[in-house]
Amino acid sequence: MTPKPLAYLLDGLDKLAKFPGPKIAAATAWYEFYYDIVNEGKYLFEIEKMHRQYGPIVRINPYELSINDPEAYKLIYVSDNKRRTDALSGFINGIGIEGRWSLAAYEEYNLIQIDSILETVPHDLHRRRRKPLEPFFSRLGVSRLQDMLAEVVDKLAGRIEALKGTPTVVRLDHAFSAYAGDVVGRICWEDKEEFLDDPDFSPTW
After folding, report:
1. pLDDT in tens, 8-52
2. Any idea what DSSP says for residue 136?
3. Which one in 121, 124, 146, 184 has a CA-CA gap of 20 to 30 Å to 198?
4. What's 67's DSSP letter?
C-alpha cells in the first residue's frame, strides 16, 4: 500500500510539488520526525540550511512550506474580505484535544462534529465560533486586565530580585512559562495554585 503523501506525488495531485526542497521531506514526515525527535528539536536549523540551498520558499514536509521572506507576510495574512482560508486539518493533532471533525459531514449535512474551536477547519464556521470570544481580545478587553498583569509581573520580578546575590541559577524559560500560566490561570479560574509560588517556577508546567 502506497503511503498517502507518496501517493499524491505519484499521482501528480500534489499542490506543493512545484516548490523546492529535499525530495525525502516532500515524500514523508519521517524526515521532520528524525530532526525533531531523534535529534532533539533541531529541524529548525535544518530548515535554515534548506533556505540557504533552495531559496526563500522551501517545502519542509508533505503538507507545509517554510517562507523566509518578510514581504510574504502581507500576502499570506490577509483579511477575510480578500481571501477566506480554511485551517489546516490536523494541525493540532497530538496535543490531546482532537475532536470528531468530519469535513464531509459538514459539507453534506451541515453537521458540526467537533469538540474544539482550535481545530475547526472551515473559515466561516470558525468565524462564527470565534465571535463570542472577540470581546475578550479587544483593546478594551485587554486594557481591563492591565492591573492584574502588572501584579503578576511584579510578583515575577520580586521572585528574581530575591535571588540576587545567591548562587541560584534561574531558568528563564521556566520563570516566563510560570508567569504565562499564572496570567491565564487568573483569567480562567477564580482560585488557582500559582506557578510563580513554586521555588523552581513549576518546571513541569
Report:
1. 444 444 788 899 999 999 999 999 999 999 998 999 999 999 999
2. G
3. 146
4. E
